[in-house]
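Structure in, sequence out. Go:
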């Protein structure tokens, strides 16, 4: 007997243990392309949903430098609004996505009115006399506050905002760094906050802190990569443009500084023209390879294109003393791509393969229907192959093993494949050549 189950419950159910419901709600962030704000909203939903931990309301604080600022609030503003919300959230068959979407709409509705009051809830974490709730974040301690109205350790601005005598402070900490804080309460039901509530809420706080930390870390990594790419591009452009510019400048000065006979002037002007053409070629290839705009993917018959590419004059010239072997299946499947970009990607791979294949060597082009999903096209050379270090860098911008290469061809190929919903794999060993395997989404003739 074979039984199948969902990876997670589709809907809330009162008989499901809260721990499983909590885990299932939080797991939504792994199944959805959520932003950080949406991921934190998932956490607040887990904290305030009746099927989750069941707190009535939640206030989110985030750190900015040494400041702790209130940034989001989720929950009803009155018993009447609470009844309406909870009635809707307890509707049979309601799923997680719908609840998060509802809460997103709720936050969008209430935040404009609450924003002026939330701005007052900004704390300096370096303040020695820091009051609650911010003190919990600074000290990295979960703090349950009872009888808040009579406790001098509670900030009056926050107390006026929250208007409840009991609340729970959950610091958001990751890598021993304070990311923010969540404060939850039961202002509507006045239910006491139990030790089990605190245990489950601490798990939410742990995940929220790590969401914020990884998001900020990812942004830093992206910025570092951008700066590294800018530096690499600047060095590349400087290297590529220096020689043509120096040549143009030198021969132009010769024409201006001293008289020359007609033959010498013509020679200088011809060299200048060649170097300008070289510059134009570099600029065109840079703009062309880095800007791939596929308006619409269409099913195309790849076989005629693969057969026509070796007949191009530039390819035939390179293949004069080499052989190109093409093997195509009788299968009539189409591939999903853009025909122009598809041809250019194949030309790039074939051009590279011919460059490294020695005289008398062979370049192989093979195509086959791998399975119901993919058509695979393979381009293999009989060149010297690549070591592991070169393989790891081969799709990096401006990396090339050729002296005159721009290092954009393989990056162009990969971006075309990704734009078409496909992928590219590389296999290479020193002395045994290099093989590129391109995976394109397959389509049957007549299939939409």
């Amino acid at each position: 007997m074979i039984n199948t189950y969902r990876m997670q419950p589709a809907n809330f159910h009162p008989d499901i243990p809260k721990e499983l419901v909590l885990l299932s709600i939080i797991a939504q962030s792994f199944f959805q392309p959520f932003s950080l704000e949406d991921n934190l909203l998932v956490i607040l939903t887990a904290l305030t949903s009746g099927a989750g931990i069941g707190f009535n309301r939640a206030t989110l604080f985030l750190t900015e430098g040494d400041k702790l600022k209130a940034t989001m609030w989720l929950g009803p503003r009155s018993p009447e609004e609470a009844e309406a919300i909870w009635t809707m959230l307890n509707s049979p068959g309601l799923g997680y996505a719908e609840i998060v979407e509802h809460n997103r709409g709720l936050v969008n509705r209430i935040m404009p009115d609450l924003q002026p009051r939330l701005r007052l809830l900004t704390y300096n974490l370096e303040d020695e006399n820091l009051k609650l709730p911010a003190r919990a974040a600074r000290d990295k301690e979960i703090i349950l506050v009872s009888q808040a109205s009579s406790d001098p350790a509670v900030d009056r601005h926050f107390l006026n905002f929250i208007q409840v005598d009991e609340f729970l402070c959950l610091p958001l900490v990751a890598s021993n760094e304070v990311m923010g804080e969540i404060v939850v309460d039961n202002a509507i039901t006045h239910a006491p906050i139990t030790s089990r509530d605190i245990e489950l809420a601490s798990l939410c706080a742990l995940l929220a802190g790590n969401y914020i930390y990884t998001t900020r870390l990812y942004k830093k990594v992206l910025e570092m990569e951008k700066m590294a790419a800018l530096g690499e591009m600047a060095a590349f452009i400087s290297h590529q443009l220096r020689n043509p510019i120096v040549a143009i400048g030198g021969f132009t000065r010769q024409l201006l500084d001293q008289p020359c006979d007609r033959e010498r002037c013509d020679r200088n002007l011809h060299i200048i023209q060649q170097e300008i053409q070289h510059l134009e070629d570099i600029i065109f290839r840079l703009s062309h390879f880095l800007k791939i705009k596929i308006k619409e993917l269409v099913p195309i018959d790849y076989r005629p294109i693969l057969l026509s590419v070796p007949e191009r004059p530039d390819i035939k010239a390179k293949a004069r003393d080499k052989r190109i072997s093409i093997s195509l299946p009788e299968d009539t499947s189409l591939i999903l791509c853009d025909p122009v970009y598809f041809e250019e990607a194949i030309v790039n791979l074939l051009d590279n393969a011919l460059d490294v294949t020695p005289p008398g060597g062979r370049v192989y082009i093979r195509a086959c229907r791998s399975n119901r999903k993919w058509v695979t096209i393979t381009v293999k050379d009989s060149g010297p192959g690549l070591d592991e270090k070169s393989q790891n860098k081969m799709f990096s911008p401006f990396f090339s093993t050729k002296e005159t290469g721009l290092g954009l061809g393989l990056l162009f190929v990969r971006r075309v494949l990704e734009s078409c919903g496909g992928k590219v794999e590389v296999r290479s060993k020193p002395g045994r050549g290099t093989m590129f395997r391109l995976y394109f989404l397959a389509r049957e003739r007549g299939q939409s």
